[in-house]
Amino acid sequence: MLNVDKQCGTFLYRQVIDLITENMDTGTLLPGDRLPSLRKMSRSAGVSVPTVRQAYVELERRRRVESRPQSGFYVRHRATNDIVRPTRTTAANPAPLRCRPLMERVYDGVNNPDLVPLGIANPSMAKPAAKTLHRMMKRVMARAEERSLGYASTLGEPALRRQIAYHYLDTIGAQVEPDEICITNGGQEALLLALTAVASTGDVIAVETPTYHGMLELIDSLDMLAVEVETCPEEGVTLSELERTLQKYPVKACMFSTTLGNPLGVTMPDQDRERLVRLLEQYDVALIEDDVYGDLRFDGQRPVPAQFLGSKARIVTCGSFSKTAASGYRIGWVVAGQTIDEVARLKRAFSCSSGLLQQLTLAEFLASGDYSRHVKALTPVLQRNSERMRALVAEHFPAETRTSRPVGGSVLWVELPRKVDAEQLFDDAIAAGISIAPGHIFSPCACYTNFIRLSFGHPWNEKTEDAIEWLGQQVTRLAV
Amino acid sequence: MLNVDKQCGTFLYRQVIDLITENMDTGTLLPGDRLPSLRKMSRSAGVSVPTVRQAYVELERRRRVESRPQSGFYVRHRATNDIVRPTRTTAANPAPLRCRPLMERVYDGVNNPDLVPLGIANPSMAKPAAKTLHRMMKRVMARAEERSLGYASTLGEPALRRQIAYHYLDTIGAQVEPDEICITNGGQEALLLALTAVASTGDVIAVETPTYHGMLELIDSLDMLAVEVETCPEEGVTLSELERTLQKYPVKACMFSTTLGNPLGVTMPDQDRERLVRLLEQYDVALIEDDVYGDLRFDGQRPVPAQFLGSKARIVTCGSFSKTAASGYRIGWVVAGQTIDEVARLKRAFSCSSGLLQQLTLAEFLASGDYSRHVKALTPVLQRNSERMRALVAEHFPAETRTSRPVGGSVLWVELPRKVDAEQLFDDAIAAGISIAPGHIFSPCACYTNFIRLSFGHPWNEKTEDAIEWLGQQVTRLAV
Predict the structure, then answer these.
(1) Interface contact flag, B149 A329, Cβ < 8 Å
(2) Between chains, do A138 and B138 touch, taking CB under 8 Å as contact?
(3) What is the pLDDT of residues B413-433, one digit of tens each?
(4) Residue B207, by phi and psi: left (phi above 0), alpha (psi -120 to 50) or beta?
(5) How far apart are CA B119 and CA B246, in angstroms?
(6) Domains parsed from chain A with CATH numbers
(7) Which of A257, B184, B278, B356 could be A328's S-S partner, Cβ–Cβ 3.0 to 4.6 Å?
(8) What's the CA gap between A131 and B141, in Å, rounded?
(9) Which residues of A touch B214 (CB under 8 A)?
(10) How distant is the Cα of A327 from the closest Cα of chain B, in angstroms?
């Protein structure tokens, strides 16, 4: 029984409101926290369920809380920054990579377990999945003792390919043939195989800007050139800009992440995706869609990758379990469609086949339904972390700071005041025990010098909050 | 007590000789079989140990048996074919790959578990190693539950790199820094990274002939050109021919397997290896040494890879556990030396990092000494299989047939009568339930049309013997 006073003149539901707001003010209820359920609150406060509902609805009207379907009411973040603006890059010409040395230093930071890990994109979701995956792997070892040490076939274990095809059917109703899927060494090798299958040395590849640095390193390593296409933080690639680029340069392929692209966390609206596909058909340009974050939409609504929109364009979708289940397994895939023979040939030439034991284990993880349950449990945690991080950035960073509004995934893109050099901030942060990703590495011409990417994909704790606060203070110092 | 008659006038040791030769003639003792030990024979035949020794030495003089140090006496193969001759290829010009479609069909055969597996090179050594590796992996999962699902670093798990460096020190006394080793997705990715680090599209790469088809597919996939260099089945690459090639073509790198090269199973003598290194220095050509069979010398004498001969040439050594412990783990490595930064950059761009769980497990497998024990137990089995296979080929194939004389590894290279088309034989064999590797795929210009490669790396049984006999009969038919 909480301190609701039935004798007091105030309406009961108002007392519930006061109770909640007081707890918000004292910090017991933090942004992103779930309010007690109607039933629970009714019992503990000794009032009726409709009274609690009335209070919660009023709080929602006041924009202190927000309701989420099938989930309940959550404390809203009151202060948030403006959203980042699309960046017209200074050099839209196809360009080789400028920021290699800085990239290496970012990786050194990412590989250092002593730092607060705000620099690495993949959510460290090991905790919930580890026990289940280990148990399944032991079972696989017992069942297929000798076989599990041998080679998988070039395309990969049929059971896993079938499960991946089923997952597409189950989540987006897409018809994928297991035999057009090739299992790869993580999403990165998926990108390698897809890109080598559709383009050659010297070719121009269109990318979103900002975009995932691993794509840029890959394009550069294959002696291809990346050309950046303006990308809107709320709608993805600006299609008019893309068309201008296709007119201006001999683009061989686009390498986009239209679902929860890294670092913007933006998803292209369905109608734009259809326009994109028609544009690619028209200009006869291939599309490599990096879809490794697809399962991590906060609202659980998986968008349909462009490949499944019934187009005649050459489209290849790249997926991975690195962001959702086990990055150390190094298991990803390519849905290669009409390029499957070429992809299989390249897979064989580049790495023969992928680890069999992990493939058998993941096949079981998917077949049992544990994968879906795991992802369903993971996304609300990511959403909550995302909201907490945005609130803390709003609280501690200078007022001109802008952020992305991720609708999924595990990263926040932050635009700092113009004067701040993100490389300097990166160096200072490393010295202070914090890893971040400076904006430079998300563009071939290193143009995002006053941006950083922060990861919220790791267990949230005091160190995370202290790190964000420290970063805010340092940005304030550097902005002067 | 065997049927040695002490009252008979014949010398006792002659009776032992007769006993052994009779058993050979009736097929109880087969080529490659170990004779009973001196002590055992002395006991069972009721004669003294010196008498048995006298008999065995006499049998060795007659070339019916051979002694092996620290191991005992073994039945010799009486009939063997002449050794294959070095082949002057028809097209020594740099050439793109001709036999892609046939290669694909060979892989289909290799991936079919219902066929007698004479077509796949890697020895299926899972049996002895499986239990130990599984036990160690379970221990790793228990000890590093969450960590083992995360990313390894780009270069790979330090513990494994240290163990690999220690293995070089232990077996050949070479000083390798763990930090110049990059862990890869099997030996194939090791070749990919090494080749991309030292050469680009359009470059000419010198290869042995015949050579491993995986190298040819890799060179072709990267739009490079392979030029073949005559390779002697008893001494490796003919250095005078190599020099002529270096003079004639702008060779950027050599991709050789100077220890137990596949398919010849030949090892280059040490003095030639030193000459090779000097030649490469002189012409400023890089060397990628495929050393994945290095641990499988029958005599246990590991030759020193060229990289460790103290040269200033750019030499990269590629190794793997696929041929010795667990192909399904997909763990190999590059000893990258001065190219380590480039190799690390490419590793990150192509596949981020390799599977952590397998790396931790193999690190323990090496550290415990189990790897060395396992390899020591494996090579005598391979040697025995090799001898049996050569004897059966001599027995069943036409007299003009020639074979390699492998000093290690798991494959036999067989030159058939000129009229025989190995592709036809391959098709007939598949139809008869046997996979083999037709000679075509071991040369970019598909010139080994009357050669096949047979693998003796799998458990030997009646099916193996029947398959060889069937192949011999079929070759005889096709030779007419």
Answers:
(1) yes
(2) yes
(3) 999 999 999 999 999 999 999
(4) beta
(5) 33
(6) 12-75 (1.10.10.10), 82-87+94-124+376-478 (3.90.1150.10), 126-372 (3.40.640.10)
(7) B356
(8) 9
(9) 348-349, 352
(10) 5
